[in-house]
Amino acid sequence: MAPKNTIASDGWLSIGPLLGSDVQRRDNDRMTSRGSGRVPSRWWAVAALAALVLVAAGLVQVVAGSRREALNLLVGTVLSVAVMAATAWWAFTTRRVWKRWLNIAIAVLAVANVVLGFLEFGFRQAAGATAIVAGSLTYAATARRALRPAPLWTAPDSSPAAGLGSPSGGPGSGGRGSATPGGLGADGDQGRPWLVVNPRSGDGKAGRVGLVEAARARGLRVHVLERGEDLVALAREAVAAGAGAVGVAGGDGSLGLVAKVAVEADVPFVCIPSGTRNHFAGDLGLDRADPLAALDAFTGAERRIDVGMVGERMFLNNVSLGAYADMVADPRYRAAKLATAHAVLPASLRGEHDLLQVDLRDADGREHPDVLVLLVAANSYELNGVRERLDGGVLQVSALRARTGAALAGLATRALARGGRVAGGSGWAQWTTTALRVSAPLAQLPAGIDGEAATLATPLEFRVLPQALRVLVPPALGPPAPRVRLQSWATVRRLVRIVDLSKPS
Known about the structure:
Blueprint: E1 23-25, E2 31-33, H1 41-66, H2 69-93, H3 97-124, H4 126-147, E3 194-197, H5 205-209, H6 211-217, E4 221-224, H7 231-240, E5 246-250, H8 252-265, E6 269-273, H9 279-284, H10 291-294, E7 301-310, E8 313-315, E9 318-322, H11 323-329, H12 337-349, E10 356-357, E11 370-371, E12 373-378, E13 395-400, H13 405-417, E14 428-433, E15 435-438, E16 444-449, E17 452-457, E18 460-473, H14 489-501
Parallel strand pairs: 3-4, 3-5, 5-6
Antiparallel strand pairs: 1-2, 7-8, 7-18, 9-12, 9-16, 10-11, 12-13, 13-14, 15-18, 16-17
């Protein structure tokens, strides 16, 4: 849990005296700004609740008129998903080309069976199906609008930015912060933000968009990384020279190295997404397709986020051990990720390689003596691979042992039955903690740290450093919106409360 201090639970600096008089807290736990001119949330909430009534009416009509058809459709869908998972696994792991194509064909037929089943059901129950679809789409759109947070920061003034976001990062500075921490100093390079650019990341994305020129035009000190240069040493030299902030334009693997220097020196950190995947930038809320827009972070507001440590190595996303780490360590991985995955992983998934032997205990004290893949992440990933929070103060540990088509099909079926959540069992375990120790018979283990190959000495000591990293984000980014769980009764109760609290007194 994040400490109860001036840092809010969503990672943005807390409301109260830091925000000034232009921002107030609403009873429905959302931020609003006076004079924002927003359409009242009450009407969106009313529309969302009306859409739910339409969905309920459609369901009643379908259930009353379909008799056993709805149950047959549900059972058929679950079975088809299990077949798709198993055949996809076998298609990926088999050595024989004809078996691969056979399994692909079976998977396609399973998909077609689901699609045709829903189409047939929809035609037979046209009125109810139309009501359900229309109501669901309307509910999804209007509920998100009703629960969407209003902008936290007031609009920045139009004068040129004097410097970096201040430690308070509040709207009193127009989203710009003070000039003290990292503004463009009048005394040479003192206080000037520093940015290192990896020109090879993302197949040369930085060069294609003119990132170096754009950064220098903003007055940043820019260093173009050459092969063989020590990124950590460069960052430390920049801090010693008085850099008010340090930034990285590259892939996820470069970020943790410079972030550690930023934490040690207590200077702000900036992420410019110019790599291939840029998972951390996506979780932070940046537009991964527009590295130039991320340069606005140097005059933006500040967030505090967690970082993970394994020994003395820092990670911002995750550390992987086992089959995935073996794939990352392959020399072919950087140039051809998919081809390398198909060349390396199937042998492990066919059971030709032993599981990784570890001494690992979960939060309940259960032992996990071997794993196919072990993933330790800074904060929790959702099923879609995205982290809702970067300041939860926990490590998420995921241990996968299933490595056969049948085992994977079982996991997929259980996940479908639980609404996307995979229940723990013999093939899978997941829990959260603040510290973790992983021992192994081997003196060293190959690992993937934020997607970069590394070798770590055992035992591995993982820990989380809550809100240790000061991250600057563009002023236009705003606070991260909490995920709206549309299927939750809590969401419905929030909508009812919005309608009730918004009534004129």
